Write a sequence for this structure.
């Protein structure tokens, strides 16, 4: 009838069950931001590919520089220079290849052209100065991107810089969602007596998108067993993970629980977190089933603290332990929960944590206002100035 | 010939020129994540809309509870209860309206049903217990979302919870990008002598997407004035902001500078940041023009530190001053730049900052490896353990 787990136990238990996606596909760079890299990427070239100029200026042979010298060639970026003739210099621009025989670049601000066209310099250059060497930044064969990372803009620029037009990425995790309850009405519709708006749909779908999932929104089903079973089968056919809100506590009206048990298997927990507590994990066919609490704040916090790491590992990401920042409280909290870890909704202002005054779980106001959660241990009280564990909500 | 500005001066100068978008449109909740809210949102209803049960259990009148009592009605969520008959209790479920006359809910775990169907309780309830009051979370008329914020999943759930199907959002900022240089080759193509891959395109476009911009990628143009002028006119016709990489320093080969000056106006700066330095701001028609340095690392860091706040304010967001975390260094740095603010590419590991060993600006390796920047003042050296200003790269 429900196992009671600590926050850490529940997190570890879920993570153990997150089988990372394995098959991969080549994804073009312009589609790859936010995808998870399936294999390490090795450079197949040197970067830069040739010695080149770090400046707009003049390529010189240091030994020649006793007097003003004539300019024997002009080397814009993208051109192929000739060998530098003895006793001459080359006009050169940033990124342009260094002419064979030149051993330094002098920036143009340190050059003066005489009336005869010869150029003299206000400095004595060191050999190698203002030259970027071939392979200095990336050597042929070097691993430049590790598997299991979510690809960032900089990663894609890096891949492009070595000529890769695509990268081996894991598939996007497909997450099906549906929403249950006779009392739910879609926003924009009039509200009848005893009805409430379906708010879970409108935070859950974008929150899953932000994590990098493909979301399959199967809509709303009333409190009835057969339609719920049908929706579960539909969801399992198209998704890697099924997420619902509500219908998984121990009350009689919870058809989701009965439907998952009929179509697969289900473990119900109580997790010692507040807001939160009821959480269900199961399997329907080959899909994972996650049942979030129906209360929006409980569901939101449970997604952030427990389900997000599960989904991230399921996507193939390396998931580190929760990394809390240590920040001072600008508030007091003297109503600790004796048995549960509490996640207070807070906002970081000028390096301090401010508390949303109403921490009740009835409405998402606190979550909309907050930019993060303070993770309190069971029984922990807070005095202003106490150092607290702050988890940013991305 | 280029004004030299400090980092803070350049940031403030750019922000002053960022005219926030003004016209707005109603955007359905399912399309609104990441959009900027144009007007404050006031609640037009109470939340919750009626007193309701916080538990699965029994709705009772506390004064009646001397003995075991019969269950006179059953109130699932979404139903409309009758007034509670004196001397009876109501079976009730989470979220269901409280029957008139009931003044507390007792959780089902504290109830025992006898063989006669009457229910007795192991606790003495307090009036009001386990009841969520109408309007307790949001009162009719309350401002729930402030203008100028980027809409998050929680904001959308909150809007849905009060029945709003759409929100007044500013338009998505349209940013046109193009890339210049005879030496540039697209990744996947063979590289000729003196050529390099166009890496700027592949980090800049997704970085702008991540900021919430619509990106119009106008491709690549060679080092020639007329095609560059045409591209600028095309860009100004469709975009709010034009961003290019390269072509804006003082060298002769910089056709972008000449093209912007011919089609509009341009201010060239040297900004005392490293990597970075050259930056251009101008106007072409009604569009802003931003010229990033052509070096990928310089361009990337300049986008993160200077252009991102400009674009955010241009999008209509409230842009706070850069909020640095204060974190200890796990490295030493004894090569400070005497005159420029330096942005070192670092990674946060177990609460400490690790340095990418090659801080040269030749390649995006450091930016791909890093999760943030350390902001050093001119001349600042670093010893292990020093507290540093860390800017996360989102």
């Amino acid at each position: 009838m429900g196992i009671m787990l600590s926050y850490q136990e529940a997190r570890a238990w879920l993570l153990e069950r997150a089988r990372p996606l394995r098959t991969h596909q080549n994804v073009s760079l312009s589609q790859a931001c936010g995808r998870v890299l399936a294999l390490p990427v090795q450079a197949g070239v040197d970067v830069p590919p040739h010695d080149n100029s770090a400046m707009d200026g003049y390529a010189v042979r240091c030994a020649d520089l006793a007097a003003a010298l004539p300019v024997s060639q002009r080397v814009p970026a993208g051109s192929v220079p000739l060998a530098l003739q003895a006793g001459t210099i080359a006009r050169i621009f940033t990124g342009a290849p260094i002419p064979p025989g030149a051993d330094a670049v002098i920036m143009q601000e340190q050059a003066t052209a005489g009336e005869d066209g010869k150029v003299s310099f206000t400095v004595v250059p060191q050999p190698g100065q203002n030259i970027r060497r071939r392979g200095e930044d990336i050597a042929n064969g070097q691993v430049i991107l590790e598997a299991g990372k979510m690809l960032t803009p900089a990663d894609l620029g890096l891949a492009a810089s070595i000529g890769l037009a695509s990268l081996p990425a894991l598939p996007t995790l497909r997450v099906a969602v549906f929403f249950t309850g006779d009392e739910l009405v879609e926003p924009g519709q009039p509200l009848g007596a005893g009805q409430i708006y379906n708010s879970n749909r409108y935070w859950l779908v974008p929150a899953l998108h932000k994590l990098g999932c493909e979301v399959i929104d199967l809509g709303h089903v009333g409190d009835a067993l057969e339609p719920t079973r049908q929706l579960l089968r539909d969801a399992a056919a198209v998704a890697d993970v099924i997420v619902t809100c509500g219908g998984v506590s121990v009350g009689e009206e919870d058809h989701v629980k009965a439907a998952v048990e009929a179509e697969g298997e289900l473990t119900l927990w109580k997790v010692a977190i507040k807001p939160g507590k009821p959480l269900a994990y199961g399997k329907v066919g080959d899909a994972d089933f996650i049942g979030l609490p129906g209360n929006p704040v409980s569901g939101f916090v449970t997604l952030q603290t427990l389900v997000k790491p599960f989904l991230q590992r399921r996507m193939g990401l390396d998931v580190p332990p929760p990394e809390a920042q240590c920040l001072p409280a600008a508030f007091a909290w003297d109503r600790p929960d004796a048995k549960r870890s509490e996640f207070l909704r807070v906002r970081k202002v000028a390096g301090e944590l401010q508390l949303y005054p109403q921490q009740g779980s009835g409405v998402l106001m606190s979550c909309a206002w907050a930019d993060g959660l303070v993770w309190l241990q069971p029984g922990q009280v807070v005095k202003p100035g106490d150092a607290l564990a702050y988890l940013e909500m991305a």
